[in-house]
Request: fold
Amino acid sequence: MKIAVLPGDGIGPEITAQAVRVLEALAADGLPLEMANAPVGGAGVDAAGDPLPAETLALCEASDAILFGSVGGPAYDSLPRPQRPEQGLLRLRKHFDLFANLRPALVYPELAHASSLRPELVAGLDILIIRELTGDIYFGQPRGIRQTESGEREGFDTMRYTEGEIRRIARTAFEAARKRDRRVCSVDKANVLETTQLWRDVVTETHADYPDIALSHMYVDNAAMQLVRAPRQFDVIVTGNMFGDILSDEASMLTGSIGMLPSASLNARGFGLYEPIHGSAPDIAGQDKANPLATIISAAMLLRYSLDQEAAAQRIERAVSRVLASGLRTADIAAEGEATIGTVAMGDAVLAAL
Ligand code: NAD
Reply:
């Protein structure tokens, strides 16, 4: 099982190094993993004049999954758009048709104090938001700003989904629910938007193949409210690109700690790119301050969703829980006055717990 490791820029190399140590420990225990590094983002520009060098793409194509750090930084902000670090990530998403974005929002009981909600509402929260990433109003044509007959300017976009696009994301959600609590809530605005009426119909039809999964539907305005009222009611939430953009950011803030949140972007073959949701944090890069846990948990997701290694994924997640339960904290997740440790020491602690 081959993993392409693309550390990227800023804190990227520091945090991926810790995730790689964890994967190497599993390999030493008999899991047949092979890892190879390649530059991406600003590091790709420095190495080969391209945020996604040809050798990096070739390595990804020869691999079963990608572990991605983060890209970007002030040194690259004035480059022409095709050379900007984020193009490396966008081109990977497009090249591999990574249409399903999986964002868990998980609150470890010990970190419930970091949430903006009362701890008793979020302690033990474990939601998986699945957002369609390549369709919807963000990509639908026609779009633009035009002049109306009365001479006024008018902006317009087109919300569009084909039934094939809906069916494949619905399948991703039902399959993911099988690895969890077997409940899917599909979020739409079927009372107002035709596109999302089709969404509801196709999700319901697809559900016929998954009788072991409980399916419910919710309007997006209600979902936004329920996420802050009683977020623990959800297991898997599946929704379109625009609603998912908004709801996944809302859900991530329920956890209050950006350094803890992993993500996955998958295609229909289960190939995926796994990365923390945070950026390259130039303000703390190179200082051994970054929290590596979002990347380590991303590696656990990689094992679960692309390599089908559920037991190994759970081993990593249990190790992270034990480290948090033992009171070890990087600065971003420490409560006021709590002692803190650095990036490498957090990696050491996870390895010890593993
Ligand atoms: P950011 O996520 O990098 O940082 C926001 C804040 O959170 C900073 O104060 C940072 O120190 C802190 N933070 C982030 N990750 C942390 C971690 N693991 N441990 C501890 N603290 C952490 O967002 P930003 O400052 O808006 O962007 C910085 C750069 O990252 C920009 O160049 C941006 O384009 C890029 N970016 C990249 C990605 C990606 O690679 N997918 C995503 C978002 C932003």
Summary: The mean pLDDT is 95.
